Amino acid sequence: MKHILLTCLAAVCLGGTALGHENQEASENGYFIPAHQDTTLMDTVKKESSHKKRTVKFSFGNGVDNTIQVNKADSAANGGTSHDYGQKPKVIVGITFSRFDLGLATLMDNGSFTLSPENDFLKNRTWKTINVGFDVFQFGYRFNEKFRLFMSAGFDWTHIRLKNDIIFDRNTSPLSWQQSDIHYDKNRFSSSYLRIPITFEHRIGPDRDLRIAYGPIGGFLLNGSQKFKSEEEGKRKVKDDFNYAKFRYGAFARIGYQWVGLYAKYYFNDMFENSPDQDGLRNMSFGLMFFF
After folding, report:
1. What number is the average pLDDT over the span 180-184?
2. For the chain, domain boundaries
3. How far apart are CA 166 and CA 185, in angstroms?
4. pLDDT at 167 (0 to 100)
5. What are the residue boundaries of the Outer membrane protein beta-barrel domain, all occurrences included (predicted)?
6. Class of the 93-290 domain?
């Protein structure tokens, strides 16, 4: 992530330098013509101002698209001033660091927050069962200042802090576990996914600071793991897919003001596959979101 930040910063600096050398009399949105310039120079500037100026802008979760923005400079006939005709429709594509989710994860057993006897072994500590995720790439189209549609890609982790001293069996199907003789101070059961949401985003208000987003979300399993901590064994970590669904799909919703907001995600398919006792066991998460 540090390399990404440095690369984008360098690109922004180089872009600003290039624009500065192009015309030192240029303003941010067009050309400013000093009063002492003759008509020849004014005619030259008038011709140049008829062309569109293109600048590349990079953003890191501040709501500005990582794309080319097209501004049209006004002619010298208006007293040499310049105007921005507003943001034009444009393609959204590039590296980003946005929609950072930090919230609670919960298990829903056939629509209930209470686990059935078959899933009682997954009892967890509510405030230590968390969801973390963020986007690193996005591609889409901004139709106007108030609406854009894009697909993004990122990473999503769910950490379930178990109450019971159990150890999940590796390379088994269906999901199985064993009761341990050791008491674990920490027993965390985790999954990580490559998340791919498709976002419909509306920007509301005079400055478009209020934002509402929603859409479908899918994810491909990267890995599963179980991490233990005890006096007898110290810290220990085991990796396996643990029958987590290879692909999951669901829906999400977000609402925020400027760079902070709330989110909720719910997955329609079961958390585990090839495990009949866990049929109907699904994942839901909600919490705070940063860098809309």
Report:
1. 95
2. 2-88, 93-290
3. 12
4. 97
5. 129-269
6. mainly beta
